[in-house]
């Protein structure tokens, strides 16, 4: 992600003369440069698309059921196998490698790498002739083009409306603006086997099958019904994720209060142990060398009384901390889905994320009465009195 960040707009030099044909710049009917203002982008703005363990870019990012994202390398080296290394949530797959790719983060990495090339001081070369410096980026073809190749491109695609923009304009944008401008509606292909390979684009969603269909499937197969527009379905799924995320934010306060109470109880347990150790030392120091052995026995007794409570509190703290990390990861992922996900990414990832959010909603903070209590020190006090 080095180099991905806001910078002062570059001075524009003389523009190369266009080849005869369509005018160089945004095509009619295509969105122009986003006018939304963003604060200067720091490197940390897009740390969320990296592996949450090694903090590195990877084309193999996996989404766990706890909604943490890790690369394949970290999951392969993960010990113990079957647990998320961030929050220790169980990984259902026996191999410890989830089946779901985080296509949102993978695609964002690819789009940011394009932006990095645009902002590079040397500038990208033409993707077609490989010799000339690129002057235009076509978001439809995902290619950098020099002035001459852009003229050929416009002639070849004259019946289509490809959005092409000058690199000078793109360099003046922030990474946020570039990602928003390149988040365009994507084609969703028919879910029937073989139809996706034929390029049959779907605009219909079957609510019964919960799948995207092309017009042929919807018309010829009477078993599919009722229908709705695929765009409406993607919006509904996005809104459903946002609603579930808001509900989890309401439950978060309960887990935070439990975590704070557990921390306070652990501190009280440590303080009780510290006070008893000090009292033991003060009393034993008054005795002769013959009772030093008694001092060690008393210290061991205190440790034995407190160890069980400390272990139980540590387990509860780890469990609640894991739930909080999962909630944080879910909120962050849903937020980034709303900001940057294409419709294809929503369709691919929403059912999996929804299942994880429903699992989170079922969790409840452990009741206060079940927590471990400090060990009984009455026996220790009695032996001290006897000394």
TrEMBL record:
Membrane-spanning residues: none
Sequence ranges of Low complexity compositional bias: 1-11
InterPro entries in alphabetical order: PML-like_CC, TRIM45/56/19-like, Znf_B-box, Znf_RING, Znf_RING/FYVE/PHD, Znf_RING_CS
Annotated coiled-coil segments of the chain: 252-297
B box-type domain span: 121-167
Record's keyword annotation contains Zinc-finger: yes
Compositional bias annotation for Pro residues: 15-29
Region span, Disordered: 1-40
Protein name: PML protein
Originating organism: Brachypteracias leptosomus (short-legged ground-roller)
